[in-house]
Write a structure and sequence with these properties.
single chain, about 300 residues, mainly alpha, 14 helices
Length: about 300
Amino acid sequence: MALAARLWRLLPFRRGAAPGSRLPAGTSGSRGHCGPCRFRGFEVMGNPGTFKRGLLLSALSYLGFETYQVISQAAVVHATAKEILEQADYLYESGETEKLYQLLTQYKESEDAELLWRLARASRDVAQLSRTSEEEKKLLVYEALEYAKRALEKNESSFASHKWYAICLSDVGDYEGIKAKIANAYIIKEHFEKAIELNPKDATSIHLMGIWCYTFAEMPWYQRRIAKMLFATPPSSTYEKALGYFHRAEQVDPNFYSKNLLLLGKTYLKLHNKKLAAFWLMKAKDYPAHTEEDKQIQTEAAQLLTSFSEKN
């Protein structure tokens, strides 16, 4: 309604004139005579210059109206796209995973990178729900990758598109075997690093680089052997590097994500620092649960605290 009101004020009507009304003939404000002879058909046709000027003015008026319509429609489309993104972000912050997915899938043919990476995220989030079947999960994981790939193609300067492409590519690796997973690891790392370069204040991208380091730090020996057989220089990392990224993410945006708190605790456990591990695991356990993932993290943190407390 606000947009309609703004467009209404731009319409070329005089104040007090209703839409579609015209000024009556002979009321131009001049005192000269404007008798009926001036509007006779034979006199207009008899003056080619006047006729041509009339056609030209009509054409220009028509073109002006067409341009106005195009601009107005573009403004409406832009406003609608903005509203969709605002609604999507509200649903995401509210933890309405399935409603968000239903909203965004209506626009899956969009060319807007901002909408596409959000759709990739929503598809992945639905795949992560415990009530999603394994068959549905696989379909959603590949669907998410396709949306993220399209988002990246539309805007390579979008840090979020790089981030979600890397996340979705990592998920697909679970279905394509160890060779594909290791090969994709290099690509995933590049996109996380690009996302951080484009937006160094995005705590999530930094957190994800921490997960990348943590994953390859704890890679089982048999996977390391396979990696060495397949690649001359397989990906590798350390718990210290992972810890550095998790702390950096926390500095950028304290308490932004329950999983970052959990992984700080787990990394300190790997480094045999039980005191700091307990500190971060307690924060993860006490983190307000907004999503299903938060609840799962609360449970895992509580179990870890109980397990190493019993050993002491």
